[in-house]
Amino acid sequence: MRKELLIRKRRQLNLFLLIVASSVITYYALIGVWPFIYNIYLTFRKTDIITEDKFIGLSNYRFLINDPIFWKSLWHNIYYLMIMVPIGAFTSLIIAALISKTKGIAKKLYTAMFFTPVVTSMVAVSLVWTLLYFPKVGLFAVVLSKLFNINQNNLTFLHNPSIALLCIIIMDIWRDTGLRTVIFLAGIDEIPDQLYEAARIDGTSAISQFFRLTVPLLRPQIIFIVAIYSINAIRVFVQIYMMTGNPPGGPANSTKVLALQMYQEAFYSLRFGYAATISLVMFIMLFGLVILEIKSFQEKWEY
Amino acid sequence: MKRFKKALLVVLVFAFASTCFLFGAGQGTFAAKKVTLDWWFQDWSGGNAWMRDYIVKFEKKYPGIHLNYIPIPFEELNVKMIPSIAQGNEPPIMFGYDEWVAARDVSKLFLPQSPDPYTVDEWKKAVYAPTLKNVTGPDGNIYGYPFVTGANAFGFIYHKDLFREAGVDAEAIKSWDDLKKAAKKLTVYNPDGSIKRSGVLFSYTEAANTFLDMICMQEARDKLLNPGKAEWNFNIPEAKRAMETLKSFVDEKIYDPRSGDSAITFPNKIGAMLLQGPWGVGATMTSFPELNVGFLGMPPYPDKSTKLQLGSVVSYGTFFLSRRLTDSKKDAAMTFIKELVNNPAEFFDIPFYHKPPYWVGVINSKAYIAELKKRPENKMTEYAKTALIATEKGLPAVHPLDTKISEPDLIRNILFPQMQKVFLGKESIDKMLSYLTKYLTSREKELAR
């Protein structure tokens, strides 16, 4: 009798688990798996999703390989990643190390100060920075010309194709410094004080402590930040769309990235098939980065 | 029993309230039946004021129809319209530019506006024929009312006070040489010789349009695009000459391509004039009422003897209707279109007779233009006159290129970024022209497949 009751209860539990799991699986299939499969299907089609839809084989892939704008956009994403990730991680690490030396209210104040931009909308931040970067008469142009005796008329920032993307990267580094700093601060707090104590007794300088002790022991945080921000660099869109204006990705396509090209191909040009092909390339890149991230986290860390 | 009665009363009250809520008692069942039509329009200050003023007039005339005006920024409206139709959640009335649906089967997108409320012949009598090209379906029916001409390169808007200060007479500008001389006079330099205020500014859509127009004005239209073979050819002397003319404004230090977004720099007088359609007059003066802006027509190129051919890529501001409309909503939407066509002055007079004008541009309504021509001089405003001139000179000169590439793609995504490269000294004109030939041909062939 007791056994039967147990079996019945287990069956009920299994049924419950099945219902719970199936709802999650269905949800994931609908918003994750199905769009992905549909996206691959679209790459073989010429479609504007309403008036035209026909099979064109590998034409979208052929066009992609020969599309100079695609390669330029891809390069811009890689450039973004190469500049933003190491500089962003390094500056945040330095700031975190400096904040960790403070105590009490000062520590909280500094952390909050650096964290404020993180909670501000990217759209708002982008609009403000666009004005700061305004050519010749913007705040940055005026201040930099006074500080470094540069001709104000040459300071055109977002309107100079050689540095426009760099200007956006600088804004992006500034905006997320707080988040990276908080992650590093949490890591620094976990490092046992005895290690610093021992280093001090051995006569190690503060700089040496930072490079030989703090940095190696923050490896998990560094890997996490590098992985997450590399993914962000591949997906970057909002700041470029907002800051480069008429038409987005300018001047002269110097800030065009894959997500922006995908958006423009899909919604300006209604080439949903080609946009799907670009998004598949982005997926492959992001997938590679996620695999790297998972592999890095599989390693065990001990102090 | 008492409890039961109380419960019954509560249930009855709840049921009554639910019925009222579901069937919209406030607006429909008990009040006079009113049809509400959501209406998407481009969000710009002049347009908003104009349409809202018109709604007041319209609703007074048709109290049974409520127009729910929803302004949407240009970029969002552009990317929202077709996907919303695909999803089935488009509003009954949509404003858009005909170029967004160029070379597409409009019969699958919108409600036909012929034979009801007007036959195709009646439409051709009501509006200038070239404007109907992109809104005509494969079945020959009309699927939109193209009431105005949008982005175009018919001329330059300019600051009247800056012209006065520099002693430049806008009406004396008759050729590109005159234009360059005037622009040079209007340019202000820093002590180091760099440009402080450009004599002329190029906005992105219009600069690319002008480039194509200049090629066509040299009667090289057939050399530029062969629609039968889906081939573009910019490797022609006419294209080189057109680009050299535009580049000369940079080389001769009249236009600084790094001076910033013209939507900000022109109203802030970082440029004396701006290559833009007459619509820019109303747009600037509505957003910046303190400014006094005029419009001068684009001079013929390369000289006066050349046949004027404008509008290689032209967008007509169009009212489309949802193909899902039925019954009373369909009737109401058709009434809206009929009212615009039958009584054009009630609609088009609004922007020209407002101080400052909401909008100044090319009108596609033949009836309104005929009415303006008959109007006594003392009843015409400066802006109504400008619109009349721009329409009469501009519309007959419109001869769009027979390309399958849409305006946002051709002008914004492809042409202007390449022109910027030349302006900024990042690429030679020859290299740019070769690139455009190759890239646009590949795109045209892809679309023709």
List keywords for this structure.
heterodimer, A: 303 residues, mainly alpha, MetI-like fold, 2 domains, two-stranded antiparallel sheet, 13 helices, 2 strands, flat, B: 449 residues, alpha+beta, D-Maltodextrin-Binding Protein, domain 2, six-stranded mixed beta sheet, five-stranded mixed beta sheet, 17 helices, globular
H/E series of chain A, N to C? HEEHHHHHHHHHHHH
Number of helices of chain B: 17
The amount of helix of chain A comes to over 70%
Give the tally of structural domains of chain B: 2
- Cα separation of the termini of chain A: 54 Å
Proportion of strand residues of chain A: under 5%
One letter per element, helices H and strands E, the order of chain B comes to: HEHEHEHEEHHEEHHEEHHEHEEHHEHHHH
How large is the count of helical segments of chain A? 13
Name the CATH architecture of the largest domain in chain A: Orthogonal Bundle
- Which class best fits the helix and strand makeup of chain A? mainly alpha
Assigned CATH class of the largest domain in chain A: Mainly Alpha
By CATH, the topology of the largest domain in chain B is D-Maltodextrin-Binding Protein, domain 2
Principal-axes shape call of chain A: flat
How big a fraction of the residues of chain B is strand?
5-15%
Would you tell me the structural class of the helices and strands of chain B?
alpha+beta
Describe the structure.
The complex is a heterodimer of chains A (303) and B (449). In chain A, strand 1 (45-47) and strand 2 (53-55) form a beta hairpin. The termini of chain A are far apart. Chain A is mainly α. Chain A folds into two domains: 2-42; 66-298, MetI-like fold (Orthogonal Bundle), CATH 1.10.3720. Chain A is built from 13 helices and two strands, in the order αββαααααααααααα. Chain B has two domains: 35-150 and 314-391, D-Maltodextrin-Binding Protein, domain 2, CATH 3.40.190; 155-313 and 404-448, Periplasmic binding protein-like II (D-Maltodextrin-Binding Protein, domain 2, 3-Layer(aba) Sandwich), CATH 3.40.190.10. Helices cover 47% and strands 14% of the residues of chain B. Chain B has a six-stranded mixed β-sheet with strand order 2-1-3-12-4-13. In chain B, helix 2 runs antiparallel to helix 13 (344-352) and helix 7 (204-217) packs across helix 9 (237-251). The relative contact order of chain B is 0.15. The model of chain B is unreliable at 24-31 (pLDDT under 50). The interface between A and B is large, with 36 and 45 residues.
